[in-house]
Amino acid sequence: MKLLILTPIIFPILSGIYIRFSDEKKINKTLIASAFINFFLTLICVFLIKDEKLTILRFSEIINLYFLPDILGKIFAVLVSTLWIFTTFYSIDYMSHEKKLRSYSMFFMMTQGITLSIAFSGNLITLYLFYELLTLVTFPLVIQTGTDRALQIGKKYIIYSFVGATFVLFGLILLYSQTGTLDFKPGGIVGNIKNIDASYYLMVYLLLFVGLGVKAALVPFHAWLPAAMVAPTPVSALLHAVAVVKSGIFSLMRMTYYVLGWELIENIGGNRYTQILVLVSILMGSFLAMGRKNLKKRLAYSTISQLGYIMLGLVVFDESSFTGGILHMLFHATTKITLFFCVGAIMHYENKTELEEIQGIGKRMPVTMTCFAISSICLIGIPPTNGFVSKWHLAIGGLERGNFIVPVMLLLSALLTAGYLIPIISSAFFRGAPSAEIEIKEPGNFMLVPIVILTAINVIAGIMPNLLINIIDQASKLLF
């Protein structure tokens, strides 16, 4: 039974290799079939695997690689496999005229398998190895266009990722030298150790937080993310909504709550330092987004700010804030991928990339831009949207811990979010030629249907969030 854990990991990797050497006419059908099959394989693992450990490689106590899906990992895995279906359909239209389609499709599918490996990792060393392997399989996607600029930005992506990896590696070595284990355990593995050296573990925590925070676009290690917008829009959507930055966030959750433990971190005062970094990320991301005229870069800097919300839920150390952090990880994923899909449709069908170029585009693409407007409202956090639900929990968590700066920061950032998204909506719907003089031209169904369905999911998740909250509560009860 436990071998089932390997199926959603290996299947997309094998599918990608098959696509690389198959007839180009079969690529689209193979991509669609693989995405759906892997979604069901993931669900089978989620519902049938109960605390079963699958060792994949063991050299020693430290090089002990195994998978052990738990509630948190299963939540992340379902998110990944679900959004991969939408991105697959979207990619078929967007990439139809691109070169190197076999190569793109191979690494696209392999990225899914590696991301699910991160979700199911049973200890920190397993997560770390697949976390770095994710850099290698997404690098070809970042440089897909093959231009000099893409290659230069690809180098930047690699450098940032490997610098973060170096920080994490030092942290792992220091941690293992004291604990003798890197296993995941609710509440952390350090609690039973006597005579804890506070300064030592503070250094370990900061090394791990900063190192893992690089992929989560933590300021000041964020510059790679906006630069990576040189990649095709489906890749940008994956980087921001599913694979890379969410893997960074997920890894931070694992390190904070399942390795060191929030009580230890609070006792050594580590969260006082990381809260500063997180709050700076929230504000700086918003201010930088407001100053960008390029639509994809505006959304990229927005991601830096929104990821700060999730990290805020990790460093406040309250059950409500933890729930809010996971909710925002899920809601930001569905909302931001929708926004990127809308902007990608504008780029693909209208060949427009700048804010001043999209005047009146809401009259030519009413469905696409209505979905963009609704998803923007979700990201701002206006009730009763999904963004409001997650931010409400974050605010409550801050108040319960006596941290009044959290709700103030959330309110301020919501205003800033409106400041960089509302101008896009305003320009699209309230400027340009009268509607009667414009021919409506929406994107093809492979693009439009995922946009519409995801927008509906964003709305429904805000109106009926209790199912998700109840699932997350199962994880939070083990930690607090």
Characteristic key phrases:
single chain, 480 residues, mainly alpha, two-stranded antiparallel sheet, membrane
Summarize this entry quickly.
By secondary structure, the chain is an all-alpha fold. Helices cover 72% and strands 2% of the residues.
Describe the structure.
This protein has 480 residues and is mainly α. The model has no long low-confidence stretch (mean pLDDT 90). The two termini are 31 Å apart. The protein has helices at residues 7-20, 27-48, 71-94, 101-120, 124-142, 148-179, 198-213, 224-227, 233-242, 244-260, 262-267, 270-290, 295-315, 319-350, 361-364, 366-380, 386-400, 405-430, 445-463, 466-476, and strands at residues 54-58, 64-67. It has a domain at 289-480. A two-stranded antiparallel ribbon has the order 1-2. InterPro entries: ComplexI-like_HydComp, ND/Mrp_TM. GO terms for molecular function: oxidoreductase activity.
